[in-house]
What does this fold into?
Amino acid sequence: MPDRDDLGSAWKVPPSRYLAGRPAEHRLGKPSSTYVTMPDGCRLAVDVFLPDGDAGRRWPTILILTPYVRRFELAPGATGVEPSPNTSKYRDTFVPRGYALVVVDARGTGASFGTRDSFRSPRERDDYRVLADWIVAQPWSDGAIGATGISYLGAACDFLASTGHKAVRAIAPLFAVWDTWADNYYPGGLLIKRLALVYDELMLALDHDRRDLRAQFAYFANPALLGPLPVDEDRDGSLARKAVRGHLANFRMPDFITEFKFRDDALPYDPSFTSASFSPYNYLDEIPPDVAVYAVSGWMDGAGYANGALSRFLTLPNAERRLLLGPWDHGARVNASPWRGRMEPELPVLGEVLRFFDQHLAGRDTGLAHEAPIHYFTMHAEEWRAAPAWPPTEGKRVFFATSNNGLATVPPGPGTTDRIEVDFTWGSGSQTRYERIAGIDATDYYADWSEREGKLASFTSSPLQDALEIAGHPVVSLWLASSEPDAAVFVYLSEVEADGTSRYVTEGLLRAIHRAEAPAPRNYRTTWPWRTFARKDARSMPTGEPQLLRFALLPIAWRFAKGSRLRLSIAGADADHFVQAPHGRPPVLTVLSGGAQATMLELPV
It folds into this structure.
């Protein structure tokens, strides 16, 4: 059955079995809340959950840093309503198993004072050291701190570790970027237009306490959720209301993110502030090497979060670092496999994180040291694999585009071409890898892919004589000429099953002006083609002259069945998600497929 971790031999102790052997030993107890004052006078709202509510014992602490409201006030008489939809999973997993949990409204959010001047603001990072100092000074703290969380909360774990605070022993960034620019908002150098707009609506709904806007986001839509819960000392809620009024000055994402059209662009009023300022990779040298790190992502995790997890694993020098890649969307809300037995993931991600914290915070002998450092799920095989390193294999299988729209294992002769008239109205749909990262519910991923792919220029292989399993980044080398000085090039890899059903496997994209490659820097290691996306390295396409665009598709582990065919499809737009390039001038792309200018696909097999 898909997503089962207790079948096969990937783990010596599967996460589900570990969690079953760690039943709750404590009750939650009533939380307390207070304001913690930062050096600049800004007050942050903090919740504390203790096992059994016992402040007379010392506990290891899990710190959750969220901009998505630590706890809501509930409507009078509301029953059965979860006041902490963003963080309750951490509370219910860790506190009954012997951990203190501290949940903080980030500066400028929830019931905290201040304003947000950036996405993942460096000012927030400064707050994290003060919060760690506050935790270890409490009588219930045993002096050990860990952190985890999904997406924004996950990158906050990196920022916390980068403060160098000695109490921070272990972090588990879940579904979190390493590079906010390329992993999230500008994959391939192209802005995801809808993401910026929808994120802005979400933060207006939460930061400004706009309940009318909140209704469109399933996670926060319950009408029994009122505004951010005041802390204990704020008995009449006047402080929380004052804090929310201050949030009206928060940054606006569509305005903010478009300041960074190139990765190295700086704010016009602060030349030191680029997209690196709000990306974890920028703080590599400040993360102590003795901090244990567990990165988790999924094959359908947005625009590049799996790249973030892999770069984090490949870049950090920390001796104890682990990687988990599953068949999941952003946050493991859904098992995205077309062959799933159920929609909800069966592998308990937080069960694996619990084992990690048990080992590195609580000092338990969990046997984790005997497990492989990497576990990943192979789609269509529907099995978990273990690996000592990434990529798990260095083998390659190369397929070449041919003049008859084929994919062949032998390169064709020179001079063959395929002409693509870009359709700026084509889109990949509304149930894709991009919805969940904007807080939009998605369940049936790419269910209409056969129909959508049928409108694209495609190259298709002969039926496979044997099953073909890949794990890593497929890489395309496209030789193409453009009628315009720029183009957005989207490449999709599909499995066409024997009955003709086309299954979306993965995709990659590149804005043509960013085609120049460069060596990956020390703080941003990759095993796939890297580029600076810097303004100085951008080059217009010379009209009509063939150019090489070599780039990676998003990573995937997938088994193509015997008798299936591989299909490579090319588009010049995704109107459902990305901006046009160039504006209002759909290019004609000519794909070369022979000789020294052979268009090809390299698969990691």
